[in-house]
Design goal:
- 2 copies of one chain form a homodimer.
- Chain A is α/β, with parallel strands linked by helices.
- Chain A has 16 helices and 9 strands.
- In chain A, the strands form 2 sheets. Chain A has a 7-stranded parallel beta sheet.
- In chain A, helix 8 crosses helix 10 and helix 9 packs across helix 10.
- The longest helix of chain A is centred in the middle third of the chain and has 25 residues.
- The relative contact order of chain A is 0.14.
- Chains A and B meet through helix 9, helix 11 and helix 15 of A and helix 9, helix 11 and helix 15 of B.
Chain lengths: 360, 360
């Protein structure tokens, strides 16, 4: 399977900062509720979790956006919380409230109870989905596997779900840093095993989502998020040289830490829209590729405005990258939302290809 | 009234970057629901808006935290949305959902309908509260008046309330920038008149809250938030020299723009906890005082941790300010929350004074 040559390898080439005929594009949450065909499957499956846990369905929705748009990658349909779920926390979703855990991690004894899930039993449904998607893709585009970052997973595990102020985990960070580090270490072990297993199952690119690193004061980010990202970058098994599996570190609010992140052993940094790509490119000095960074809210505006913003984003990258488009993966600064118009997403994808091809 | 000499002028001196015997401290939302005596008044008054619109009650709750804590300033108890309310948008609060407007601004005709409220009729309750508080304070500490920033007020006015993604106003920014600029211009006119009136009524320091500037991409921030902040700084009537009324620009997520903000004609910049004060001080080169910037979530941790974080914050400012504490106003990076323990707030205030005095 891993021997099937890729028909479209633009993403891999861009992540390696090699020349491409146009800038590759994929979109976070590209398999999602904004698509009527996704909503139909979800209704049939009954719930988001049932979809994620059934490899055939996960495969079906992973492929849906590729049938509509000329995207340069597929990303596994799953959730970052599959790992804590497999650790026994009891993931469930409450309508309108988002994810919740039945057994959040609050005490010493909660942490002591945790162990690393077995990837081919506890999380077999993820690996089966990866294998199935790879087979169905048949080399059309690469498949991206992913995990939440240790800090982000810890946020959900300690808070017991989403949070507005992250008061429980921040209190743990100040009052019991030892306990939080122990928790983050176990999560990191699990994340490394999870990414290794996805790669072994066929994922050709890996992305870590540090969704909540940006809620931390800098000194706290450097204690509780960054070192664990760096460890993942060092320890995930990724092969060597031209065959090395690229790793992307995406983080909301990671702009203050671009220099630190670029010094991790990763191929790319994914940034949100709060930093200009020209600045991001200058600050990372060509050490990594950059992924991003259109404000997703742009997709609510008119096709003309979307195209203009695509052009702006492409130009800003080039401006900071010595006039070259190499090393840019176009994406949003965060995920798509359910109320977005699929036609506008088509406008975006088309514009990225057309406007980046023109100047190659 | 404005002739009563201040017993405690540390805040004014710090904002002017003059020496003080210890670092002054006040806290955003210091008059608020975390205080049982506040909750008692609120129950009596019936609603938040009734409190804000009754000068005697606004005065009472403004003074409450001063009776408990050795704070170096009072801040007018009010809401940033009084201005759009006076412009006829129909402000109301829905339990658990926050502020809403009956008549949001979406169309050309909505903007055309807007006019600048008369400060001594439409917003007389605010000016009466300022006058009453000044009288009751009798010069103990200075009184801070405030307004929302034009961009932040426009967010609420266009979205019709709070928002998760600011899709309506961002769409207006891309599809109808002319209309949004017209709206921001009218709001800015109103904000300038509002701050002028508060100062005339007795406010001794003014703060502008740009709560939502940080949701904008840099190029959008520089178009739709920054220029209106700069205009306020230029045009608000503030007197001259030693008598000049200090103006503080606070912004969540304003760290990328500290250089731009320091070049506005303001005395201080208020920053959130996502930037280290040493970096903020270095980047603003002593052009302005800095206010902040402890993560409010710190208040959920133990007294020992709170004191340690206070020390850290004080030290970081000094480190970036050539070893001097001058020009630092201690505050949180954002407001207090209802579930915070008043005793912990006492620990914070005491620690700021004690730990900053030690080294003067």
């Amino acid at each position: 399977m891993s021997d099937t040559p890729l028909v479209n390898d633009r993403l891999l080439r861009a992540l390696r900062r090699q020349p491409v005929d146009h800038t590759p594009v994929w979109l976070m949450r590209q398999a999602g509720r904004y698509l009527p065909e996704y909503r139909a499957v979800r209704q049939r499956a009954g719930s988001f979790l049932a979809m994620a846990k059934t490899p055939e369905i996960a495969c079906e929705v992973t492929l849906q956006p590729l049938a509509r748009f000329d995207l340069d990658a597929a990303i596994l349909f799953s959730d970052i919380l599959t790992v804590p779920d497999a650790m026994g926390l009891g993931l469930h979703f409450i309508e309108g409230e988002g994810p919740k855990f039945t057994h959040p991690i609050r005490e010493e004894s909660d942490v002591a109870r945790l162990s690393i899930p077995d990837m081919e039993t506890d999380l077999r449904y993820v690996m089966d989905a990866v294998r199935l998607i790879r087979r169905e893709l048949a080399g059309r585009v690469p498949l991206i596997g992913f995990s939440g970052s240790p800090w982000t997973l810890a946020c959900y595990m300690v808070e017991g779900g989403g949070s507005r102020d992250f008061s429980r985990i921040k209190t743990m960070a100040l009052d019991r840093p030892d306990l939080l580090h122990r928790l983050l270490t176990i999560i990191t072990d699990a994340v490394i095993a999870y990414l290794d297993a996805q790669r072994a199952a066929g994922a050709q690119v890996l992305q870590v989502f540090d969704t909540w690193g940006g809620v931390l004061a800098p000194t706290m980010y450097r204690k509780f998020s960054l070192p664990y990202l760096a460890r993942i970058a060092r320890e995930v098994e990724r092969g060597e040289n031209e065959q090395k599996t690229p790793l992307i570190l995406f983080g909301k609010g990671n702009a203050p830490y671009l220099e630190d992140l670029a010094d991790c052993d990763v191929e790319a940094i994914g940034v949100d829209w709060l930093v200009e790509l020209c600045e991001a490119a200058r600050r990372t000095q060509g050490k990594v590729a950059l992924q991003g960074n259109l404000d997703p809210a742009t997709l609510y505006s008119s096709p003309a405005a979307i195209q203009e913003q695509v052009q702006y984003t492409l130009d800003r990258y080039m401006m900071g990258n010595g006039g070259s488009r190499e090393g840019h993966v176009f994406n949003l600064g965060h995920g798509l939302s359910p109320d977005m118009d699929p036609e506008h997403i088509g406008v975006l994808v088309e514009a990225v290809h057309r406007l980046s091809r023109r100047r190659h």
